[in-house]
């Protein structure tokens, strides 16, 4: 079970770091300090009168939430609203909406990577943003993730919790017991193997490997009447034929070579490759006119 908890913890802070950095225009780095199992009452006293963000995973019925100091989260909301990031001690409707949008975009960004990691479909989202006044609506054990982080030289901390159903969802069959012994794993990165000479059709193409080629990402397409195109104006929405969860297509020289999912890396958009054609097919597509 420890491996699954480690994997989920890594996914959690990766998503929060990248999403906050992109949405708030600052460089955020979060880490999981500890993981424990208990009840909401065990951690509520520290955050009584502060902000509770209610989370719901709708496909598997997992409840959860984020407990965070109101001054901190309203500062994030102010950044979301293009302000200076100055927080306040009380929530208002505008701040609640901004907080809900920030966390909803962040927590829903976990859905596809979660499925990739644990082979389970999930649909995380935010239900509401409230001031924590009591814990009567939460009964039973929860998994508690203590999160710390920093941005612009400022330190922040908060707690994310999920009902114990999450433990069953991420668990895979193993001989390990269910006791928590959380310790972040360090993954060694193997050096790239020495590049071999590449040939195609008996010809050495090494001399071409340093040539830059245009790479674009296709998220979808549609057809429109010319009259509708002429009448387009700011604020109009062009609906594409593809569903939101469908993979994007990586195009090289206007030829598809791979499919993947959109991710955010250090505040920039990127694509995590899910499927890709063989090297031989890639070379052939680049040569074909």
Average pLDDT figure: 82
Major sheet summary line: 6 strands, antiparallel
Query: What is the terminal-to-terminal distance?
Result: 52 Å
- Give the percentage of residues in beta strands: 25-35%
> Could you state the order of secondary-structure elements as H and E?
HEHEEHHHEEEHEEEHEEEH
- And the CATH topology of the largest domain? Chemotaxis protein chec
What is the name of the CATH class of the largest domain?
Alpha Beta
Query: Helical amount among residues, as a percent range?
Result: 25-40%
What's the architecture of the largest domain, going by CATH? 3-Layer(aba) Sandwich
Indicate the structural class: alpha+beta
Strand numbers in spatial order across the main sheet: 1-5-6-3-2-4
**Alpha carbon gyration radius:** 23 Å
Tell me the total number of β-strands: 12
GO molecular function, one term: cytoskeletal motor activity
Main location: membrane
GO biological process, one term: chemotaxis
Membrane topology: Peripheral membrane protein
């Amino acid at each position: 079970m420890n491996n699954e908890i480690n994997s989920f913890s890594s996914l959690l802070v990766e998503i929060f770091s990248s999403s906050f950095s992109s949405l708030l225009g600052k460089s955020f780095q979060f880490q999981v300090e500890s993981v424990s199992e208990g009840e909401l009452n065990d951690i509520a006293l520290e955050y009584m009168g502060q902000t509770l963000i209610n989370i719901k995973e709708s496909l598997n019925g997992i409840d959860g939430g984020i407990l965070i100091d109101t001054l901190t989260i309203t500062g994030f909301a102010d950044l979301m609203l293009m302000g200076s990031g100055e927080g306040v001690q009380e929530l208002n409707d505008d701040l609640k909406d901004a907080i809900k949008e920030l966390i909803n975009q962040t927590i829903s960004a976990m859905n596809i990577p979660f499925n990739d990691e644990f082979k389970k479909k999930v649909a995380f989202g935010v239900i509401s943003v409230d001031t924590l006044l009591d814990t009567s609506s939460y009964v039973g054990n929860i998994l508690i993730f203590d999160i710390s982080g920093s941005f612009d030289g400022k330190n922040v901390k908060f707690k994310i919790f999920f009902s114990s159903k999450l433990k069953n969802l991420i668990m895979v069959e193993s001989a390990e017991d269910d006791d928590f012994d959380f310790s972040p794993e360090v993954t060694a990165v193997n050096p790239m193997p020495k590049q071999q000479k590449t040939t195609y059709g008996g010809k050495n193409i090494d001399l071409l490997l340093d040539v830059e080629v245009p790479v674009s990402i296709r998220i979808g397409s549609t057809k429109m009447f010319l009259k509708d195109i002429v009448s387009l104006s700011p604020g109009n929405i062009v609906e594409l034929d593809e569903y939101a969860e469908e993979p994007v297509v990586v195009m090289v020289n206007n030829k598809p070579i791979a499919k993947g999912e959109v991710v955010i890396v250090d505040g920039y958009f990127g694509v995590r490759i899910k499927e890709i054609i063989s090297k031989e097919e890639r070379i052939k597509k680049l040569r074909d006119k």
